[in-house]
Design a protein that fits this description.
Largest sheet: 5 strands, parallel
CATH architecture of the largest domain: 3-Layer(aba) Sandwich
Radius of gyration: 30 Å
CATH superfamily of the largest domain: P-loop containing nucleotide triphosphate hydrolases
Number of strands: 11
Shape: flat
CATH class of the largest domain: Alpha Beta
């Protein structure tokens, strides 16, 4: 992939996220620093630690979206986890090391897809040959039907059959490629491995055992073959997958995946503010500070055991986020604070931001709804004043009730287009104009009644 400059990274993020320029600059520099580290002399390369980031801002302002889009730009394994899922060692719950295992699993899938892409042409050829063998089985018994004394004649027959068979096979190949056999059914043998379901209830850190037990059972109970009757295109997909798996070198995939995890992995740690702050003074509450202590070695850099081997976390980029309404970053353990040197505050969204969010991004909400209803032959036309009215209403509800940022636009739009979405298949009128009056008529009653807007919007 092309190595992007910080300016290019920000430009790409601008296509999907409105505002939040400081946050975009910070993540762009962090991503570019990864490339810079790869260019440094080997003896110094391992000494340069990633500059982890804390994003501070209310919900729905784009924290997760920035991290997710960044991972796509870098083609990196990306995992989003909530800090509140983890518990202190000794309690029943998820172990903090499990996020590294999950990230490695994602990297394995990415590496496998990359490898599959490289063997695609060869796998497609092999799949085609196998399918032709099923469609045109080779004749073996015809030779034995002739007497022993007619060997010369038999050999001549065999030669003729081969020529005819080859000609028929090529015709079938052309028909297969042209899609003329798509409606034909074939019988395929597929392996059906029945592994007993295993669930483990134990302390944190034991969930890895579930994978090992499943693998053990997989070897004890060999795979059974069963026949499936499917159409030719589905058969081609099944055989293609089987051939791809045979061609892929899993040792190479595992090695590549571990390297991707260690050098390019990004973990988005949400709700960090929920594990900061004072402890509750009563009850068997799981220690928030304990979770921070468990997180610390992972963020600092340690080695985690996964079923694919040892994974070092020294150069994984951690992007943490939280609203920090009650607590503040300084309430975190000093050691953990030191591991997140970059702090960036995200702005609350204004009415003008809502107007831009509705119209400007590549995946803008209005673009999405237009595309959805176009599948029913409905053309939605949004007038500019209607868009401004939607933004104003969403902003107003956020102020009066809970501020959930841009997510409020989803609830307002869904309520606004509820009737059109329901009636779309039966509508005679295929062009629908969304005017300011239409928006007010549909949502005014809900907005006037604060209790109603609290529950509906």
């Amino acid at each position: 992939m092309k190595v992007l400059t910080p300016r290019e990274i920000v430009s790409e993020l601008d296509k999907y996220i409105i505002g939040q320029d400081d946050a975009k600059r910070s993540v762009a520099i962090a991503l570019r620093n990864r490339w810079r580290r790869q260019q440094v002399a080997p003896d110094l390369k391992d000494e340069i630690a990633p500059k982890n980031i804390i994003m501070i801002g209310p919900t729905g302002v784009g924290k997760t979206e920035i991290a997710r889009r960044l991972a796509r730009l870098a083609n990196s394994p990306f995992l989003k986890v909530e800090a509140t899922k983890f518990t202190e060692v000794g309690y029943v719950g998820r172990d903090v090391e499990s996020m590294i295992r999950d990230l490695t699993e994602l990297a394995i899938n990415m590496a496998r897809q990359e490898e599959q892409e490289q063997v695609k042409v060869k796998a497609r050829e092999l799949a085609e040959e196998r399918l032709l063998d099923i469609l045109l089985p080779k004749k073996r018994d015809e030779v034995r039907e002739e007497g022993e004394g007619e060997k010369e004649k038999v050999l001549e027959v065999v030669r003729t059959d081969k020529a005819e068979g080859s000609s028929t096979r090529e015709k079938l190949r052309r028909m297969l490629r042209d899609g003329k056999l798509d409606e034909r059914f074939v019988e395929l043998e597929v392996s059906n491995r029945n592994v007993p379901m295993v669930e483990i209830f134990s302390n944190a850190g034991i969930e890895e055992m579930e994978f090992n037990i499943k693998e053990m059972f997989g070897n004890v109970f060999p795979s059974k073959k069963k026949k499936r009757r499917v159409k030719v295109p589905e058969a081609m997909d099944i055989v293609f997958q089987q051939e791809s798996q045979r061609l892929i070198d899993m040792d190479k995939v595992t090695e590549r995946a571990i390297q991707m995890t260690e050098q390019n992995g990004i973990i988005f740690l949400d709700e960090l503010d929920k594990i900061a702050g004072a402890e509750s003074g009563y009850g068997p509450d799981v220690s928030r500070e304990g979770v921070q202590r468990d997180l610390l070695p992972i963020v600092e850099g340690s080695t985690v055991t996964t079923k694919y081997g040892m994974v070092k976390t020294d150069h994984i980029l951690f992007i943490a986020a939280g609203a920090f309404n009650v607590s503040k970053p300084s309430d975190l353990l000093p050691e953990l604070q030191g591991r997140f040197p970059i702090r960036v505050e995200l702005d609350s969204l204004t009415e003008e931001d809502f107007v831009r969010i509705l119209t400007e991004p590549k995946n803008a909400l209005i673009t999405q709804y237009k595309a959805l209803l176009a599948t029913e032959g409905i053309e939605l036309i949004f007038e500019e004043q209607a868009i401004r009215q939607i933004a104003a209403l969403a902003s107003s509800v956020n102020e009066r009730t809970e501020n959930i940022g841009a997510r409020r636009l989803h609830t307002v739009m869904e309520k606004l287009l509820d009737e059109i979405s329901f009636d779309a298949p039966d509508r005679q009128e295929k062009e629908v104009a969304i005017t300011e009056k239409y928006v007010v008529d549909k949502l005014a009653d809900i907005l006037e009644d604060e209790n109603l807007s609290r529950y509906i919007l």
